[in-house]
Amino acid sequence: MKKLLVLLAVPVLLLSACKKEKVIDDNDLPREARDFIAAHFSGLTISQSVREWDDTNWQYDVYLSNGTKLEFNHKGEIEEIAGNSALPESALPALIVSYVKANYPAEYIRKWELDRTTQEVTLSNNIELVFDKQGNFLRIDQ
Q: Is 19-82 a domain of CATH 3.40.190.290?
């Protein structure tokens, strides 16, 4: 009997643990996401757009032709930008850009992430800086 329960439970657990992901047409992205991409990444094309369920809402992952990955929430608001080269300053909070220019003039921001209470950036030298929601410097993460 125990073996039967285990055999029945395993497929149910596997199915519930799978993320629901779907490659979507660029026009299926929220308007805010499309506007953000047009404003800050106009010279690039979208390689792929993916909609996935994150346990509470839909999230959108957009991959650009230069390898940059953008993550948007269900409203189309940007939550993360990650690339291998310098991110466009226009896509980042001005206070954070100013702090990095003043304190790390030889480096550039290659990743930016918005969390519930903080913003984090990764510089070209892999230093991770943490800022509050307003863009004020808090600390260096090791």
A: no
